Amino acid sequence: MNESSLSPAAANSEPPAPALCPACHQPVKPEFYFCPNCGKNLQEPPLSVSVGAQTGLYFMSIITPPMCFLTIGAWHGMQYLKSADLRAKQIGIIAVVLMVVSTVVTVWLVYAFTVQLMSLVSSLSGGLLGGSGSGL
């Protein structure tokens, strides 16, 4: 019996070779996120869509604009938004909307505070400079 007489299905009946860790070359399963032998990151784990993860992300989305330089590295909204998982993408959209609304509110509050402060300074300086003096 020669090789040309074998059907393609019979020729391809060998089990696929197991995946190997790129760092230590030990066999790993395709569903592994980390190599059990050396700990190498094999693939990114899916983003958590738990209530706790959502609450933390939404909280960060609200407080990030006022504390932008302190928290932007800890905000994961863009990771959720870019995710292939539909549920994670929805969470990312909500987080981005919350950040935009929070930014608008923060800018408005800063503007209102500044206008009020300028008005106060103007009224105080007007009272000091334009008040009745002894006329030297």
Q: What's the N-to-C terminus distance?
A: 125 Å
* Major sheet size, sense and barrel closure: 2 strands, antiparallel
Strand content: under 5%
Order of helices and strands: HEEHHHH
Summary tags:
mainly alpha, 2 domains, 136 residues, two-stranded antiparallel sheet
Question: Would you mind describing this structure in some detail?
Answer:
The chain is 52% helix and 3% strand. The chain has 136 residues and is mainly alpha-helical. The protein folds into 2 domains: 18-47, no CATH class; 51-127. A two-stranded antiparallel sheet has the order 1-2. Helix 2 (51-63) packs parallel to helix 5 (86-129). The longest helix is centred in the C-terminal third of the chain and has 44 residues, at 86-129. The protein is elongated. 10% of the residues are buried.
Describe what is shown at a glance.
By secondary structure, the protein is an all-alpha fold.
Helix-strand layout with pairing:
Layout (H helix, E strand, L loop, with lengths): L7 H4 L7 E2 L6 E2 L22 H13 L4 H4 L5 H6 L3 H44 L7
Antiparallel strand pairs: 1-2
Helix pairs in contact: 2-5
